Amino acid sequence: MDVIATPTTPTKPPRLGQAKTLREQAESGVNLTQNTCPLNISGHPALSLPSGVRANLPIGLQLIGRFWHEADILRVAYNFEQNFDWHKL
């Protein structure tokens, strides 16, 4: 089973009410979709799931699999969710 784990976004999400427009993101050099867009173009199966909280903001984990092996990333995501200690958040 081959699965790659990466962050869903390169930075923390903006706080509620401080969301930037796409133009403001481009001008600031922060593209919140730079980790997910290449997978949409390549067609690799990918899944994003919550993996914790830091500074009261959610952190996303992205799992990337091989072509035609969607079941692998679903299996890894399920095992992660079952074994992660959600009560420590």
The parts where pLDDT drops under 50 for at least 5 residues are none
Sheet having the most strands: 3 strands, antiparallel
Helix content: 25-40%
User: How many beta-strand segments?
Assistant: 3
Total DSSP helices: 3
SSE string, helix = H, strand = E?
EHHEEH
What integer value in Å does the Rg equal? 15 Å
* Binned strand content: 25-35%
Would you write up a description of this structure?
With 89 residues, the chain is α+β, with helices and mostly antiparallel strands. The protein is built from 3 helices and 3 strands, in the order βααββα. It is flat, with a radius of gyration of 15 Å.
Key terms:
alpha+beta; 26% strand; 89 residues
Which helices and strands occur, and which strands form pairs?
Layout: E1 3-7, H1 22-28, H2 37-42, E2 46-54, E3 57-65, H3 70-83
Antiparallel strand pairs: 1-3, 2-3
